């Protein structure tokens, strides 16, 4: 059996090498996680729960957090769900709201597909304390209604009020795939959407029970082929008449040559109290202005790379609500190269752009210039307010001149530049995963505030990132703390909602809704250095464990000494005195490994942190020196690989990690090398004893190899379907030109299977002959990041 173990190790290792080779060409900017957790691991850590509805794909379209009632509402296909914020997968409620037979028939008659002809709930807003406003596509015939929520006595109310159902035209798109954004403030719904069946009429609208105010129809200057991404009501000051509603969207605009249409990201705004004009601009915005949001990086050749396609936006509210920070997730518009960036905008810069010069151009084929003539009074785009300059009580009192100006000059000359004039996060490596969603938490740490970014990808992953600006060098450091595979299947993340109050993330994809805890401090390890190196602003070392950090004063009782260094992760300085060289040496886990002469052997050592650099030392008698790889001894991300082990290789190998200058001894492995002949005779014995039937059985019982989960450092998304069972190692033996693949395969399979049987019989951890833990931290080990799980 001990040989079996060697062989498997060989196979696994070779697969690794292969994966590594595939991804060696990694040069462009990409962020690299410190910790990677698979869906299974999240599950085992009790860090996630997933709500999947009735098994069929849930297809959530929109989600709404209701902290007051402690519910998460999910608008899906034909159904509205109400989930518990504690455990999304328990005690849910639902309200069916499917289209009628005749509606579906009508939809099909219009030539629409079966899938589209359903009621996709796309608008979900808290109408008031007791009601939600809900709108769906209604099989290409939008409808809206109110849903009663909350508690009365024991009965949880969650029902659509039949008498509230009304047409949803202008409040919800017809097409389930049509992008729209909405926000509700003081009983008024603000929405950016295509209002018509053919999607010709993109509009920014406001609806209440009296009026419908919107952008001009067919005015390409106001909106040109928009894609609606986000919206928010943001007050300017304490005068509520000055409240503005901001919309985030992209537009397509003909370039100056009139050849290509380029995509730009826009921020547009209107006054919340805009009543439109009296004689002109009736039921049209009298305050609509827009400008460009820029997110770019300077190139070496002086040409900037622009990220012009807004994918998602997150408005991080501050205490008084007037100065939120705006996070935009952008992609490049190039068909050849897809890069992503996150830029952050301040309200000061946004307001300055809207208070700056208006843009002007003689003809569409001309360049924009600043408008330098007289601007009418009150300034176009300002809100009617008793306090403001004009002292007007309604936009209906604006002079015609003002309305005419705002109608013909909706574009501001100055764009809005991001903080530090650059992205806080970049991903420019070709072929990497797509980034789809962003949510941000503001976290108080010992050395200041941090923004923790949660970024959803197209392969079911949420990246947890902090970005640190260094004033002295004017540089930005991104630290990818964790990579969390939230869903089992690699589906795109469609929605991320954060609850800071509950320290939870609610993540939607077509697979369902997952709830994920924001942090899991004790996962980093129990020592001061483990915690400090993690640089997770949520976590600090409290003298015993790595645990949630609360700023002093929040819980006075727990205000004992805490150690945390998010900015530098300087464990050497911070945890000095908690690490004694000699002590470390003895604390390290010890292992015994047998190699067979002339065969390959892997000394496995995988640090939990993927940011740690591994260094190997070998000790023979008094001599201790660093192992430097050569063509026979290769340093892989899984450990030290001997392609052909020699008897002189025997010795004690020490695996150390270095991270931020901090040295940690993980393992001491004693390698014994067995003479080839002795082993051969053992194999023959084993072969004779094997029974044909069990091999046959085995063919059906050998499951997927642990392929996908063994690649912590390879850049392959961990959910990529692995090669077919049984074939995977064969393929790769051929790849690396292993001569006797046939025998090898048979051999491995047999070993594998008898191993399986043995496991089934015992179902207990039995130290194997080949590898024995003399003194181990088996528990911690089992929590380790992705590694192959065949051993133990
Ligand atoms: C997860 O929860 C289960 C049941 O509540 C418990 O038995 C298990 O120990 C927990 N696992 C971890 C890693 O906390
Ligand atoms: C919320 O609005 C609904 C519909 O207009 C109304 O019936 C209900 O009384 C309102 N609830 C509150 C608490 O104002
Ligand atoms: C709807 O209209 C009525 C009467 O005009 C008014 O009292 C009420 O406040 C309005 N509701 C909203 C949400 O605007
Ligand atoms: C046990 C085992 O697999 N031994 C192999 C070691 O390598 C030699 C030559 O590479 C093989 O012939 C043995 O079968």
Automatic annotation (TrEMBL):
PANTHER family, per the entry: SEMAPHORIN, SEMAPHORIN-3E
Organism listed in the record: Mastacembelus armatus
GO molecular function: chemorepellent activity; semaphorin receptor binding
Protein name as catalogued: Sema domain, immunoglobulin domain (Ig), short basic domain, secreted, (semaphorin) 3E
Gene3D superfamilies according to UniProt: Immunoglobulins, ligand-binding face of the semaphorins, domain 2, YVTN repeat-like/Quinoprotein amine dehydrogenase
Listed GO biological process terms: axon guidance; circulatory system development; neural crest cell migration; positive regulation of cell migration; semaphorin-plexin signaling pathway; tube development
Stretches with biased composition (Basic and acidic residues): 770-792
Localization annotation: Secreted
Signal sequence, renumbered to the chain: 1-30
Main localization category: secreted
């Amino acid at each position: 059996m001990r040989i079996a173990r060697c062989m498997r190790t060989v196979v696994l290792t070779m697969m690794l090498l292969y994966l590594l080779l595939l991804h060696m060409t990694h040069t462009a900017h990409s962020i690299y996680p410190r910790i990677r957790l698979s869906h299974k691991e999240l599950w085992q850590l009790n860090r996630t729960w997933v709500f999947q509805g009735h098994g069929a794909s849930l297809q959530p379209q929109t989600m709404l957090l209701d902290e007051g009632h402690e519910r998460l509402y999910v608008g899906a296909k034909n159904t509205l769900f109400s989930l518990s914020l504690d455990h999304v997968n328990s005690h849910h409620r639902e309200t069916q709201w499917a289209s009628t037979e005749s509606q579906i028939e009508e939809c099909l008659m219009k030539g629409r597909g079966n899938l589209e002809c359903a009621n996709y709930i796309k608008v979900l807003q808290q109408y008031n304390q007791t009601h939600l406003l809900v709108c769906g596509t209604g099989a290409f015939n939008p409808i809206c209604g109110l849903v009663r929520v909350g508690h009365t006595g024991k009965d949880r109310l969650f029902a659509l009020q039949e008498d509230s159902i009304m047409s949803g035209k202008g409040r919800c798109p017809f097409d389930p795939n049509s992008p729209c954004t909405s926000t509700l403030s003081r009983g008024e719904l603000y929405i950016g959407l295509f209002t018509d069946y053919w999607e010709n009429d993109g509009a920014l609208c406001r609806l209440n029970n009296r009026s419908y105010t919107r952008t001009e129809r067919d005015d390409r200057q106001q909106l040109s082929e928009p894609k609606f991404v986000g919206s928010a009501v943001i007050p300017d000051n304490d005068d509520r008449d000055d409240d503005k509603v901001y919309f985030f969207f992209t537009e397509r605009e003909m370039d100056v040559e009139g050849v290509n249409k380029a995509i730009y990201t826009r921020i547009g705004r209107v006054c919340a109290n805009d009543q439109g004009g009296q004689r002109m601009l009736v039921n049209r915005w009298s305050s609509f202005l827009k400008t460009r949001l820029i997110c770019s990086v300077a190139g070496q050749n002086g040409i900037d790379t622009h990220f012009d396609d807004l994918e998602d936006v997150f408005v991080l509210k501050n205490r008084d609500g007037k100065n939120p920070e705006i996070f935009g997730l952008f992609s490049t518009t190039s068909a050849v190269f897809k890069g992503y960036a996150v830029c952050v905008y301040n309200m000061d810069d946004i307001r300055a752009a809207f208070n700056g010069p208006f843009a002007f151009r003689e003809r569409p084929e001309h360049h924009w210039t600043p408008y330098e003539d007289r601007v009418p009074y009150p300034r176009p785009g300002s809100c009617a307010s008793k306090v403001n300059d004009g002292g007007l009580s309604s936009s209906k009192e604006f002079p015609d001149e003002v309305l005419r100006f705002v109608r013909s000059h909706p574009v501001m000359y100055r764009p809005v530049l991001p903080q530090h004039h650059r992205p806080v996060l970049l991903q420019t490596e070709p072929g990497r995963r797509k980034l789809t969603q962003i949510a941000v938490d503001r976290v108080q740490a010992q050395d200041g505030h941090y923004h923790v970014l949660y970024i959803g990808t197209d392969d079911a992953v949420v990246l947890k990132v902090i970005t640190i600006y260094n004033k002295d060098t004017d540089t930005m450091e991104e630290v990818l703390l964790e990579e969390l595979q939230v869903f089992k299947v690699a589906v795109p993340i469609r929605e991320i909602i954060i609850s800071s109050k509950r320290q939870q993330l609610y993540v939607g994809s077509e697979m369902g809704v997952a709830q994920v805890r924001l942090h899991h401090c004790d996962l980093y390890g129990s020592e001061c250095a483990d915690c400090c190196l993690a640089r997770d602003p949520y976590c600090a070392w409290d003298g015993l464990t790595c645990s949630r950090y609360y700023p002093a004063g929040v819980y006075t009782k727990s205000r004992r000494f805490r150690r945390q260094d998010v900015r530098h992760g300087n464990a050497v300085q911070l945890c000095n005195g908690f690490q004694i060289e000699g002590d470390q040496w003895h604390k390290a886990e010890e292992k015994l490994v047998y190699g067979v002469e002339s065969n390959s052997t892997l000394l496995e050592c995988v640090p939990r942190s993927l940011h740690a650099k591994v260094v190997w030392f070998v000790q023979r008698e008094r001599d201790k020196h660093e192992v430097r790889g050569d063509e026979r001894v290769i340093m892989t991300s899984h450990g030290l690989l001997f392609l052909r082990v020699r008897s002189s290789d025997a010795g004690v190998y020490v695996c150390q990690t270095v991270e931020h200058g901090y040295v940690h001894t993980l393992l001491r492995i004693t390698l014994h090398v067995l003479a080839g002949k002795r082993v051969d005779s053992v194999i023959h014995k084993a072969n004779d004893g094997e029974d044909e039937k069990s091999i046959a059985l085995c063919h059906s019982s050998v499951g997927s190899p642990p392929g996908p989960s063994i690649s912590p450092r390879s850049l392959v998304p961990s959910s990529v379907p692995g090669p077919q069972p049984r074939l995977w190692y064969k393929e790769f033996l051929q790849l690396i030109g292993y001569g006797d693949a046939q025998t090898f395969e048979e051999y491995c399979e047999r070993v594998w299977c008898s191993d399986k049987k043995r496991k089934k019989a015992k179902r207990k951890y039995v130290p194997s002959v080949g590898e024995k833990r003399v003194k181990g931290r088996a528990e911690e080990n089992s929590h380790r990041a992705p590694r192959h799980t065949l051993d133990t």
